[in-house]
Amino acid sequence: xxxxxxxxxxxxxxxxxxxxxxARLSADxxxxxxxxxxxxxxxxxxxxxxxxxxxxxxxxxxxxLETLADEKKVSEQLVKPLAADQPDREAVETGTWTGEAxxxxxxxxxxxxxxxxxxxxxxxxxxxxxGEDHAVCFPVHVTIQRSIQEPSSEQVIxxxxxGFIERQSVNxxxxxxYLRTPRLxxxxxxxxxxxETKVLIAYIEGLADASVVDQVRSKITSIHIDGVLESGTLExxxxxxxxxxxxxxxxxxxxxxxxxxxxxxxxxxLVDNTPFVMIVPTTFWAGLQASEDYYLxxxxxxxxxxxxxxxxxxxxxxxxxxxxxxxxxxxMIPTSLLLSIASAREPVPFPVMIEALIMxxxxxxxxxxxxxxxxxxxxxxSIVGGLVIGQAAVLAGIISAPILxxxxxxxxxxxxxxxxxxxxxxxxLRFPIILLAxxxxxxxxxxxxxxxxxxxxxxxxxxxxxxxxxAPFSLRALKDVWVRAPGKxxxxxxxxxxxxxxxxxxxxxxx
Amino acid sequence: MKRMMRVSMVFLxxxxxxxxxxxxxxxxxxxxxxxxxxxxxxxxxxxxxxxxVPSPSSQTTGASKETERFFLISEVGRNGLEIDQKLQQKMSxxxxxxxxxxxLVGEALARKGxxxxxxxFTRNPRNRLKAYILVVKxxxxxxxxxxxxxxxxxxxxxxxEMEMLRGEGTVATLRDxxxxxxxxxxxxxxxxxxxxxxxxxxxxGERPLFRITGTAIFKSLKLTGFLNNAETHEFLWFxxxxxxxxxxxxxxxxxxxxxxxxxSSKVKIRSDSKKxxxxxxxHLKGKGELVExxxxxxxxxxxxxxxxxxxxxxxxxxxxxxxxxxIQKEYQADIVxxxxxxxxxxPKKWRAVQKQWDRYFAQADMSVTVNLTIxxxxxxxxxxxLKDKEIVK
Lengths: 511, 393
What we know:
Chain B: It comes from Paenibacillus forsythiae. Chain A has helices spanning 2-6, 18-21, 29-39, 71-85, 89-94, 113-121, 168-178, 210-221, 231-238, 255-263, 298-327, 335-345, 352-372, 375-395, 401-415, 420-440, 442-458, 496-507; strands at residues 46-52, 58-65, 108-110, 124-129, 135-139, 184-191, 197-204, 250-252, 267-271, 277-280, 460-461, 464-465. Chain A is of the alpha+beta class.
């Protein structure tokens, strides 16, 4: 993958020859046909349909890719009118035929070969006419798409069950359904020299911070890459951190999340062929906010948010705290608890730290295995994992029961984090901190915490400090951090907070 | 790059300047649960420690036989460190004193004085100042550690729990003991442990047990005497531990007994010092409930309730006076802290009497006033079993 990404186009295909690509169509139909033949050499799905005059001489040529085109559309909307009625015979003969009377909209008339090839590759049928130096391209593409389903990565109980799909046009439509305003802008870019992936920058004019939009725009236009298959490829290219632990862009499959973020003045980046939409800038706190927070009563939402905060700490620090306390600070454990831990550990041959690392790695392996496997086999993994590795290891005296409890609690805790890219970062941090705690005790734990704190305060997402609005502090914006205050999308309540902090930090010379 | 260097330098310093490396697995420490110190025959100190044995739970081993929950080791030595080293030689695991919750002192050693041994319990940071200190009456302290208490994992746990039951005796942690000992105008006290017995169901013979009873009074780290249970109950007023304690009083005219449980109490001591006399006023204030009334009185009547109240107050004054008499005349030990009160009220006078406080204290006049409030008489007025005509309205 890496090699493919880094390498610029090495072997120059014929079409990249500038002399050819900037070539114009010729008035000679045969010459045009030869050109098409050459351009789509060895493309077995290319279809050429010749429309002849009654005398058998070639009149028109229809070219399309059968894999992208709807055969029915071609025959109904192109071949039939062209062959049967020949309504524009006169125009054809006078050399000004542009298919005006054809029952198809959105046709493109072009004289450039590059354009023709591009359109054919997007599912258009190009019609070349004898004696004319332009082609008329009709959209006949068939849209390959799955139905709109509930997003599997972000399920909710209350809230929209619609999720984005792989077709960008559908996604934009979903978004427009939420935001019926012309202020919702969609700037289009093509990224990837071979994939020609359509990338849209979506924002609400007047709400979004112009500097963030500019940053995104300039970063996207400066990308030179062969292909973009998923938003993740793009994410790596627009984020400047060489070693990103926490995500600088939020990804989501949910149109309501994107709409909500746009209302907050953030910027969405929609990439074709993926249901995942990126939202920038994002903060640490956004990693702990679920879309459902805003649909539930605010006391309930605040409570669940606090549960998440607590378990965020559990997810990062629980195993390391256990390791530190049991191998350095036994005096901290209540006597009877210490006695039961000691009894459980009596047959175990490993130090606590090794035990914790083994179980953590084991847990991560089980998790990974569970993701990749088909659902039917996934059950087996959980049985093998839960029973064999859990219970049997304890019974055999290889692992002590307390560490099993700690590790599984930690595992559950990581699942409480609503944004899975954020949870991945948390999961990753766990291991160095276990090592620190195992070698330096609570002192190491404190060091690790300090390190994380330093890192998180240091990083920025598109100019916005990651801990906004806690550091830099903004009391007004705190309404949506530790609590979920009511009235989220009231005019001017939440939206300008990003902008203000960004501007404030810029004034201080932070950028 | 320069910044990265600087940051990593800071972390490097943080990692290397960490003092001592003291990682110890739980399986490498011997948990000392209790220490008993006695007087050895040659005048040295005999220390016995109780070490917990963390036995794998029956589920993991499949074994159901009862395993040892603790064992005892003893050593004789001149001071704490010497004994400690000798004890460690018998142990395969490092002795770990942070979880010691009980320190038992044999009566003989307590009478001889604790000054030679007490420091070892406090200087080492691995010690718990919250450990309870108890004097074992009439027996060697080490013998009581051997008792297998039926409830708890190790008997010292049971001791700790018993100590924590409020209102049943005096409680003194090491810290309390040190504070009282170090302060002027106050004598330290500790709880007292006595051997007792219990019987097991289906088994012949008695097994040893212990019970908490009374109070031990120390003067300059020497045990001078004990308070019995009744006197200890009065002492609880001053220890602010009187809650849930009872006062039982006899009603006048042979009307029977009445019992009162205190739910909140307050003690005020006022000193009244003239040139050559010293007087203390003790005012006891208590709120509580009537829990038992073995008399025909209908306590729902306020006049009758007043009789009950007066009887209870008389009893409380009487008890308190007896207690004061004992500590003043018999032990001459100011365990309550009257001296501290005098020091606060009249520092000049205190300086005059400080040197011979025990003598002055013994001669001080005491006056006791009591005010009890009966908040609740229970569900009924008179006892339910009484016939109508038996009830005194």
